[in-house]
Automatic annotation (TrEMBL):
It comes from Komagataeibacter europaeus. This is Uncharacterized protein.
Length: 72
């Protein structure tokens, strides 16, 4: 199972994980997790390739895109 460090308070695998926690996780990793082993690195690379670059809801590009959508 892939091993990660939690970067931000997150709901993972049915429970809240605090920043700094080291977890084992088989799900799809997001930017809230830092890979700590080869399995996690591989899973992260595969998932990012599958979904493309992820944009946080607080990212100015996301906000601009939402404003543009509202104006259409």
């Amino acid at each position: 199972m892939a091993k990660y460090k939690v970067l931000t308070r997150s709901y993972i695998g049915g429970k809240v994980e605090e920043p700094g926690a080291i977890i084992q996780y088989d799900g799809n990793p997001s930017s809230n997790l830092e890979p700590l082993d080869a399995a996690a690195e591989k899973k992260m690379a595969e998932y990012q390739k599958q979904v493309g670059q992820r944009i946080s809801a607080s990212d100015p590009r996301f906000i601009a895109a939402m404003i543009d959508k509202q104006g259409q």
